[in-house]
Amino acid sequence: MGGSEEQFSVRLAGSEDDLRAAQRLRYEVFVEELGGDGPLVDHDARLERDRFDPYFDHIILTDTARGGDVVGVYRVLRDDQARAVGQFYSEDEYDLTPLKQSGRRLMELGRSCLAPPYRGGAAMYHLWNGLARYVLENEIEILFGVASFHGTDVNALAQPLSLLHHRHLAPEALRVRTQAAHYQSMNLLPEDRIDRRVAMLQVPALIKAYLRLGGYVGDGAFIDHAFNTTDICLVMDTERMSETQKNIYSKGITA
Q1: What tens digit of pLDDT does each residue of 27-85 get?
Q2: How many CB atoms lie within 10 A of CB 226?
């Protein structure tokens, strides 16, 4: 869906009603559409939530032409907020030691979603603009977070996972790794057996967007049976972004 500049508004959730609207959109996307679940998911109220929600900031995109309906969400956790929780969300899946020892300002991204009619158009541009402003205002240096492929059959995902491993693996200093007990190799095919076109068709738009911005992937995938996904960890060092990429990011991009 397109939309004029005035149609969309981006802000931080500032009330319980805002948070519930974000959780309801997440339920529609992650539970109803993608088949996910979790211990705190409220099926009666149709809310996708977890124990981390109270600690995160929630960037919400509203459609002013539809009475301010929440149509996009991004959940973000700065390193100072993570200290209050005791961990980052993705530490259950990934060993983040390289990032935590870097001494740089970290921020975790997650639960990014748009209502179906708004995908592939102006809405994502505005949501990314809001995220970019937040990053600049908080002087964030490293962005990271779990991104997902739908489904848990790694053999069906061998092409895209292998492509990410061979061509987009993070440098050693930023190379997070799946927790040992859950490590799933992404090196499923030798590089010369990857059909890049076929592989990229399977890569979700959000992951492609991060790669265009100079993002990397961690070592290993995580199979999330509860959420019916195969997760990877994306890492982006803002210092490594070219000026062109910085311009794209600061203006917002369409995933």
Answers
A1: 999 999 988 888 989 999 999 999 999 999 999 999 998 889 999 999 999 999 999 99
A2: 11
Strands 94-95 and 142-150: unpaired
Does an H or E element contain 16, and which?
helix 16-26
Residue 209's Cβ-side half-sphere holds a number of Cα atoms within 13 Å equal to 15
CA angle 18, 26, 215 (to 5 degrees): 105
Q: Let me know: does 91 contact 111? Beta carbons within 8 Å.
A: no
CATH class of the region 5-251: alpha beta
Extract the tokens encoding 255: 């995933």
Long-range contact list for 35-41, CB < 8 A, 24+ apart? Answer: 35/228, 36/226, 36/227, 36/228, 36/229, 37/226, 37/227, 38/226, 38/227
Cα dihedral 125, 52, 216, 151 sign: negative
- pTM here? 0.88
